[in-house]
Design brief:
The protein has 664 residues and is α+β, with helices and mostly antiparallel strands. The chain has four domains: 177 residues, no CATH class; 314 residues, Elastase, domain 1, CATH 3.10.170.10; 67 residues, no CATH class; 50 residues, no CATH class. Helix content is 23%, strand content 27%. It is built from 14 helices and 31 strands. A five-stranded mixed β-sheet has the order 1-6-7-8-9. The chain has a five-stranded mixed β-sheet with strand order 10-17-18-16-14, covered by helices on one side. A four-stranded antiparallel β-sheet has the order 2-3-4-5, sandwiched between helices. A hairpin with a 2-residue loop joins β17 and β18.
Amino acid sequence: MKTKLHFGIVAFFVFIATSNAQVSEKESEARLWIKENEKELLINPDDTFSLRFVRKTQAGETLRFQQLKNGVPVFDSEILVHFSPYGEITSTASTYKASIADINTTPSITKENAIAISNQALEISGDITFQENKLVVYDKLGGTKLVYRVVTDSFSKAGSWETIVDAQTGEVLSVKDIAYYYNKHKHDKKESNPPVSMAPLAFVSGSGMVFNPDPLSQAGVAYGAAGYTDGNDAATTQLNNARTSVTLPQIDLTGGVYKLKSTYAEIKELGSPAKGLFTQATSTFNFTRSEDGFEAVNAFYHIDKSMRYINETLGIPCLPYQAANAGVVFFDPHGANSQDNSFYSNGQLQFGEGGVDDAEDADVVLHELGHGLHDWITGGGLSQVNGLSEGSGDYWAVSYSRSLNQWASNTAHYNWVFGWDGHNTFWNGRTTDYGASYSGGLVGQIHTDGQIWGTVLMKIWDGIGREKTDKAFLNGLDLTTSNTNQQNAAIAVRTAAMDMNYPCADVAFMTEKFEEAGYIMPSISLRMNPIPNQTVQAGASNTYTLPSYAELANPITNSCDAGLTQSPVVGTVLAPGTYSITMVATSGSTVSRTFNLTILPFLDINENVRNNFIMYPNPAANVITVKGEFESNESVSIHNILGQLVMNKAITSNEQSIDVSNLA
């Protein structure tokens, strides 16, 4: 049986480092740390490392070094070194394998041979939608072997199939499905470069009807209420009324045809059944749930919205690293062989149709997207130890649905995951109000155990808010590896919060909730992050009175009780000029930070007023827009209530959008 490539792409990877060169100014310093710690890491003198993946976020920069044996990557073996935004190494992790034996790393069969052997073993009878082949040193089947690891997604065969082919003999050593499923009915397993910039496409805005996040939450009713059952996709009056009209910021318009495709998401035929791409001659994608197009626009809207929120609102770079995706999330709203399940693999999402169609429930869509986020942030180092990725997907789903404020906190629905697809006659769903704690409550089932992780994150969410928790969660995943358990993930999330200089009270709250859930959190040695230089303007008397910089200094300890002194002291009156301000924190040890304060001379306001501009919205949480007739050399400066400059942005047009999401 011949096979054909659905996208016309097969990726052959021999060396990870050769296909995506990684560069970082921190590489030398990170390598020095590895060298200085080689005894503790048990590094063999003949092993070398390639810099395979680098990420820069508000929490700093993370470098991942791939173990090489004779120049060939060792599968699932890396050393992670993370630098805070201030250049300090605040987190390290390792999956390095000292036990890897010295073997012959010259293959006897070709990459093409390995692909053919894999395809035959899988008995693929339909189009291939994804395939990659990597030559690696492998130790997961007993002993050290040189193998080709072939990963294949096929239209007719649900899942993502890993075939391990002995590179010397051509023997098939292992075949298994490594996709990540949201529902334990099907699978319960582990395993599974920078984003690629995309050329501008013919995007226009559109609209559609969706469930946001599901009809029961929208109406505030339980499954089984009159008109609120699946009924084989029946479009009851109640379910039609539970739809919400939404704007689709980007859809593709090519040759007069509108398609569910944007900078972040694109509909694809990835698995059976084949129901088409729902292209049409209008930008209005209005369907009822009895029409297959409804699941398509519902999944598209929630994937696109979540990716925009991460990359644009939170300012965290996160896109699929898979070359075939070119930075876009591929999704099939009717896939998975119509099973009552959905899964993520290789930058692709497939949604099943058994029971309530999975793509009708935003929780299912965002849970599966959560697996993708975990994969992309770690550069392929997603961990299912203790069900970490399952709990992460549950958290990402509920973080969004709870932000809509549709259920009171004293209702069970407030904590439910999959409130429409689950918690009904089809299956029980999951919760973020799980009673077990770590690690005594672990039962060895990833979907069940993941609820411990999802529950504690939502408790933190309730205490410090959505955006702070989402940022700490996503940037915390950046500090994890393929063998990270929930315990170490908790430490990673708190470390990311401290690296982003969260208020000590927030860090203490996170610590409290993690410890209540059973995690052992290391004691925090007094830390005070470097303080950025400040620029302010003198008052009408051409002087400036020093405020307290205690909040800016933000010393962090276990109990937030550090003593803090400021020099010059609060209330000191200063003339225009540049001054050194020193903050000294004391709690057992002492940390001192000095920054420069520049005081600009007073300017007569009447000579600098510009009346012909408007600013909106006010107040704003994410983006403000300034409109007016501006000159080419003008800029916008934003000051806090202390008069400190917190942002300065050049004006490039008469209508300027300014991202203020990072400001308090």
